[in-house]
Write a structure and sequence with these properties.
Elements: E1 4-15, H1 55-67, E2 71-72, E3 75-76, E4 79-82, E5 92-95, E6 102-110, E7 115-116, E8 121-122, E9 126-138, E10 142-146, E11 149-153, E12 160-166, H2 173-190, E13 202-213, E14 220-221, E15 227-229, H3 235-254, E16 262-267, E17 272-278, E18 288-289, E19 296-297, H4 300-307, H5 314-324, H6 329-335, H7 339-355, H8 366-375, H9 385-395, H10 403-415, H11 418-425, H12 432-442, H13 449-462
Parallel strand pairs: 15-16
Antiparallel strand pairs: 1-12, 1-13, 2-6, 3-19, 4-5, 4-18, 6-9, 7-8, 9-12, 10-11, 13-14, 13-15, 16-17
Keywords: ATP-binding, Ligase, Nucleotide-binding, Protein biosynthesis, Transferase
Enzyme class: ligase
Protein name: Aspartyl/glutamyl-tRNA(Asn/Gln) amidotransferase subunit B
Length: about 475
């Protein structure tokens, strides 16, 4: 059977949450508004209306690009991208072509499940996904299908829209999902978009094909086609759409047929993709520079000023938490998915440090214990930092222990479990947890599990 490797790239569209639209003064917050009430001559493309760029949108696009390690072009311009579709009132879209705001970036992702199933070999779980370009454009209107009619709502027309294009660096759907989730988190950290996919402010479009692997030669023959799946609004749907497409394309290739170069949609109810329109030939958008908007120039100082506004990004927080607070990667990762969660953790940890000198007991790795409690919601996250610390201290106060009773219980547990004792001595050290459980049960929880563990280890090894 023929062998193939997936070749997957992404186009991601992100609406910016500026107060006004990209080239006019209409409000950019259009969601839920009555159709065609949030428009003006500029975003409707009426004759004589002139666009004026929203510089806040330009700065925020640069900010996204800097967070993605891109090179910012000191010279950039807007272009007219011509195509005719009902949701495009001017017959062209103001976008960027050969001089985008940013190029050549990357984002590292971490996939702990990454492995080669054929060789049963763990691969490098870190992958560097290259960003081709980040550019700024205006969004289109929205088509609404009602019975046999198709209506157009232009409220969205002209909203600032950032397009992020990756290289075809992905070879599996899991990495795509991880990348998109990380990108989504970064954008929310930057506070430039709510990235709400249900409302369409972040839209995902994978480009998918299968490359043939030449037999007995470690060489990939690149495919001569590409399938784009448009406007997906869920990370899980992207993953499912890619997996469906890879299977569909493999079946076609195995039957001697080359998949059509086309645009497809994803039906989440049936879990399939479906053909929308053919792209057998490259579309001629007849780009040319937007004559009504002068080119943009940026100084090193201006770009550095924008860069100074970048917050600590989620992957940087993960690295700091695992290093400074001795957290497990999984806990650090969960705590950094929302800015509010990480702020709460740090606030609680800071309050704890303020009070620890007043305590008559010592807690090992307090940061890790706090993170575990927050992640597993063992204390309500609705408590203030001070209330959390008070509850935390109560949970970790030393238990008053009847020492004589504890020693007798440990001796009895060891005595009635000779088989497990022998297995532990022969290297099955995980059984220590079994012994601790038996002792804690007999003590009705009135003992410190860590102290019990040490006493058990000592007593068993003395036998």
């Amino acid at each position: 059977m023929n062998k193939y490797t997936p070749v997957i790239g992404l186009e991601i569209h992100v609406e910016l949450k500026t107060q006004s639209k990209m080239f006019c003064q209409c409000k950019a917050d259009y969601f839920g508004k009555k159709p065609n009430t949030n428009t003006c001559p500029v975003c409707l493309g009426l004759p004589g209306a002139l666009p004026v760029p929203n510089m806040k949108a330009v700065e925020w696009t640069i900010k996204i690009a800097q967070a993605l390690n891109c090179t910012i072009n000191k010279q950039s311009k807007f272009d007219r991208k011509h195509y005719f579709y009902p949701d495009l009132p001017k017959g062209y879209q103001i976008s960027q072509y050969d001089e985008p705001l940013a190029v050549r970036g990357y984002l590292e992702i971490f996939n702990p499940k990454s492995q080669d199933p054929e060789k049963f070999q763990i691969l490098n779980p870190k992958s560097k996904i290259h960003i081709t370009r980040v550019h700024l454009e205006e969004d289109t209107g929205k088509l609404i299908h009602s019975g046999n009619d198709t209506l157009v709502d232009f409220n969205r027309s002209g909203v600032p829209l950032v397009e992020i294009v990756t290289e075809p660096d992905f070879d599996n759907a899991d990495d795509v999902k991880i990348f998109l989730e990380e990108l989504h988190t970064i954008i929310r950290y930057l506070e430039v978009s709510d990235a709400n996919m249900e409302e369409g402010s972040m839209r995902l479009e994978p480009n998918i094909s299968l490359a043939r692997i030449t037999q007995n030669v470690k060489r990939v023959t690149l495919p001569n086609y590409k399938v784009e799946v448009k406007n997906i609004n869920s990370f899980n749907f992207v993953k499912k759409a890619i997996e469906y497409e890879l299977k569909r394309q493999e079946e076609l290739l195995n039957s001697g047929e080359t998949p059509k170069q086309e645009t497809r949609g994803y039906d989440d109810k049936r879990g399939i993709t479906y053909s929308q329109r053919s792209k057998e030939e490259a579309h001629d958008y007849r780009y040319f520079p937007e004559p009504d908007i002068p080119p943009m120039s940026f100084t090193v100082h201006e770009l550095e000023t924008i860069k100074q506004t970048l917050p600590e990004l989620p992957h940087e927080k993960v690295e700091r938490y695992t290093k400074n607070f001795d957290l497990k990667y999984d806990d650090a990762f969960i705590l950094t998915r929302k800015v509010s969660d990480s702020q709460y953790f740090e606030s609680v940890n800071s309050k704890f440090k303020d009070q620890i000198s007043k305590m008559s007991f010592v807690i090992q790795n307090p940061g890790q214990k706090i993170s575990n409690i927050i992640v597993n919601k063992r204390i309500s996250p609705n408590l203030s930092a001070d209330e959390f610390v008070e509850k935390f201290i109560q949970m970790h106060k030393p238990v008053e222990v009847d020492t004589d009773k504890l020693e007798q219980v440990i001796a009895d547990v060891i005595k009635i479990n000779p088989k497990q004792v022998e297995q532990y001595k022969n290297g099955k050290t995980g059984l220590l947890g079994f012994f601790v459980g038996q002792v804690m049960k007999e003590m009705h929880g009135k003992a410190d599990p860590q102290n019990v563990k040490e006493l058990l280890r000592k007593k068993i090894e003395e036998k």
